[in-house]
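Supplementary Methods, section 5.1.

A reviewer requested that the exact input to the structure prediction be made available. We therefore reproduce it here, unchanged from the version used in the analyses.
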Amino acid sequence: MNRITALFGIKYPIIQGGMVWCSGWRLASAVSNNGGLGLLGAGSMHPDTLLFHIRKMQTATNNPWGVNVPLLYPEIERVMELLIEEKVKIVFTSAGSPKKWTSFLKSHGITVVHVISSTSFAQKCEEAGCDAIVAEGFEAGGHNGREETTTLTLIPSVAAHCQLPLIAAGGIASGKAMLAAFALGAEGVQIGTRFAVASESSAHPDFKQRVFETGEGDTILSLKKLAPTRLIKNEFYEKVKKLEEEGAKAETLKELLGKGRAKQGIFEGNLTEGELEIGQIASMLTREEDVAEIIRDLIRDYRDRLNELSSLDYISHF
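The structure derived from this sequence is encoded token-by-token as follows.
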């Protein structure tokens, strides 16, 4: 047990990312039922839809679970009220300042975790009273930090400057990567991409297959004038790239982006005009797995690599 497993009351320090159009009750409950912490992705849910998924979670698992809430959500006040009304116990916030809602949530007995991409924001989480933080590196899918700091650089920096329990995210999809994150100072990992293409994910089968076909270098951080987002290169991305190379202003990019691009790509399977958000680690994934298989493999790989390293004497070679 460490501070992360103790904080959430979970068996393994594995948190599933609250990803838009992927993280419904089936995925989140499967993760929680297999010893991790499942998160509903409220960013793609209207309040009534979120309520439906919360109610399903309440019957699908007796284990701890939570909700990820992007703070830029247009109906944020109603969402926060709903979380209180339904007695949600764990909330991960992202895409905004932790100061605005942390004290409100904590006053209702909710454990609050905030997602950050820089050491300075980690310190702001500490000041705001967050219970833990997720430090997400440049490798991650979806919305990303403007600093473009890699996980390997971000985690030890945050660990050195912040005392909160630390969850590492970005490019983590194996037990080996978990072990590396722990060596750098994290006490838990948040995994998005591998769970995004799990059997229980609500992502479209065509999107999942496109992820399995993604090679090294096939994702890129784009839309930096709006909100930096890691995308699979497709026809929509090429349009974005062309506008950005021409020096287009943010308003022009917003017009191209429109509404529902991520839904088109991830949930509806439009692989040409949709926004295909996924992490760099996609190039390492080749097939669909169920959540139980994923978590078994993560733990087995972690333990095997730990045993291998403990049997080696690297110091003697220097």
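Residues 14 and 145 are 22 Å apart (CA to CA). These observations are discussed further in the main text.
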